């Protein structure tokens, strides 16, 4: 009993350390960014005012700014122990009154979105499951392609589209606000549908991989009912996505600022964003500590759920996951879609992406401008083509980076418990962005670092989940019992099983990387202001969705097609 | 409950979780205005912050004086006033004004309110270095006095931060509470955090009975979202309709447009870099053509700026043409042009101007960030050019203050980093003038003097756009953007 308690001590210390560490990081924001918090606070209260010395001095005196980040954070943690979240520097109202209701709202939205994503992904996977139970599954099934397409839909474009069609156009649901369950539908769709795409792709991969295991053939030969086989297959596949769902839930809590803004939802993402920009340290600290605590709780819960779903099989040598075998052939559809994409890009590359003509503002497609013109009268096709190199190139590089980091973290990590991944995943993107921008300065490199910092997490968790299964398999147990070295086990027994699905996962997230870059552009991170990069173009023109759908449509279609290509390019091997 | 049902219950609990308390729960029978204002309260509606604008826009609080289009003071809670000497003025108050909490607005209450504002910490920008002291002379007469001669003494009383609240509002001397303590046509009854506020008509309002039964105000940050809600029929009045959304409005909505004393201008860094050379500044001034920005980017929803100040501001004053040095040859000189995306038109306008400068021979890199992260660099002079939007008549309806903060050596918002002793002297001389007409002519002369340095290129003068549902009448068309909901605003339902 005592040893069990002692064994838990380091983990408890780790949790406390993570909380204190993130609080310190946030507390250091003013020092990292080098921007005077008094000036930021004054500006937040008084937009048109002049930040003169006397006013700044008064604010400084009033805020009782800590002398250094460590003192400030210790004070914050001390108050936290007494249940006091402090007072906002900007509004001078108790932080708890702002942050706690926002957390409740965000939990509601993120919970609904996650549930919806799980249901939708499940529906997309049913055909593949049934076919696998019949032994007829080839590749990832339709779930893979649809999943790839959905996963590349930018959340904010989807949000604006949903408002325009379902709320304004058909009047089915309210546009903005958050006063009842009817306000939950559209945000949940906007956040849940792209997430469902990723999950569907993962499920499709998991089903395809599991379908090849020998027990499926045995069960079928023994005449086990189709529904029973499908259920067993489904359970294994769900085990892979449950940790991903929880990541999504926590990741959405603090990072949905853009979608929250579209629907005017008073969630934690918007609160954290506003507070971080006005350097309202007490509010950001409280928000981040709450998010990280939630992240660790849910992450721990995820491990438990994974164990529950896998059941007793996990502890013995009950699994026989098999390494990919047989020949690989990218699906023909992937080639067709890639060819189309390439043609459009080539056509665009031959045209001038910078020539402006404001008389052509938002001109519809014509012979002279096959995809129309953007708000400055620039040719959309040209910008599409020139943006492709940058968008695809950056996204591929970022995905490769996150893949390497994710695999390393997922495979080399011991055990299955949550760790730094859950902490990082819970941090709002804006906080990560501001910290990185402060350390490296603005630019493309900083944006890549920020995106990689967060992007490896789902991949690492995926790798970790699969590794748990692989470690419980007969061949792994045999290898370990036979005295194989750790590196040997990883290279010969884990990587061949874990690598391909995680690679597929990384491919699905290629368009995400592009959007994540664009999401940081308001901080001066990412592609330059006039760059035709797709994510940037989308972020700048979403407001024109109804007036000139072609301006938004071109880069969005580019990303979706890229998602389809990525989903189909590496199908599960045929058998 | 078995394990699986227990797992299913978790998300269900989450979904049934939290919704924000709403301001729209009132019964349908009441004739209430549904209004969206463009930014959430930053400090629980304390009038000593930008929230003061929200108070006046909701029709919840009022100032002693207000401004006509040129910026001259007009009576509001004060009926009349006169200067006793160059630092003292006496105001006669309306005698029929009652605060929303039922107490009469007498001279004691007004003096208390002004003195509390004068003691605010940090000091209010409109009272900076003024040393205002207010005293009640009799029930309806208040005397205000500045520490030294102050031609703008009465004008200052029109600043939104000096709205008059009843004495109960100042229980916490650091954060006045306007809920139920104002004088406007509508009384705040409840505030739901930073999301919404509920107001009821003030039956004994001095300007007559308000046209609607009440107002449900929502604070919606995102301009496109506000417009969507108006189009969906969820709102009656929406302040700040973005230009990009105008074309999506139908017959069911219309837009009330008002010209603002707000200039979008390109500031050139006169202290460092390429534009330290006056000849290259002149080249940039010559290169900029506001036409494509006004006709294209803002779709005609603005006026080409004839100068920094608007014609409304200058009134009868005569503009003199600036004289610039001969333009030099940029020869590919590299400049960085910064702007912010908080105003959606600015990045597009910057792209058009950058192209014009490129055509003139400059090499231009455009930098776009959100204002909050850009400001430290702006003030530090990190860019060669800054495209920004600026109010030329701020709190007092007086244009001289704009030149003092933006174009003098000690100016707190001198993005052009202009430091010209002649300009400083002219600003100081103009600030001392008491006659409003002389002040305006001095402002016109100052404008020409500043433009002659090539430190700033005016591009356009902005307009405010308030979207209203078809039946709505009587929405405030105020160039100072202080009045939106007025006593006369009706839903038309």
Automatic annotation (TrEMBL), chain A:
InterPro entries: BP-dependent_transpt_permease (IPR050366), MetI-like (IPR000515), MetI-like_sf (IPR035906)
Subcellular location: Cell membrane
Alphabetized UniProt keyword annotations: Cell membrane, Membrane, Transmembrane, Transmembrane helix, Transport
Transmembrane segments: 12-32, 107-130, 150-173, 193-216, 237-263, 283-305, 333-350, 388-412, 424-457, 510-529, 550-569
ABC transmembrane type-1 domain: residues covered: 384-570
Superkingdom to which the source organism belongs: Bacteria
Membrane topology: Multi-pass membrane protein
Protein family: Belongs to the binding-protein-dependent transport system permease family.
Name listed for the protein in its UniProt record: ABC transporter permease subunit
Organism: Klenkia sesuvii
TrEMBL record, chain B:
Keyword DNA repair applies: no
Keywords, alphabetical: Signal
Domain Solute-binding protein family residues, every copy: 74-413
Organism domain of life: Bacteria
Membrane-crossing segments per the record: none
Extent of the signal sequence: 1-20
InterPro entries in alphabetical order: Peptide/Ni-bd, SBP_5, SBP_5_dom
Pfam families documented for this protein: SBP_bac_5
Protein name (Swiss-Prot/TrEMBL): ABC transporter substrate-binding protein
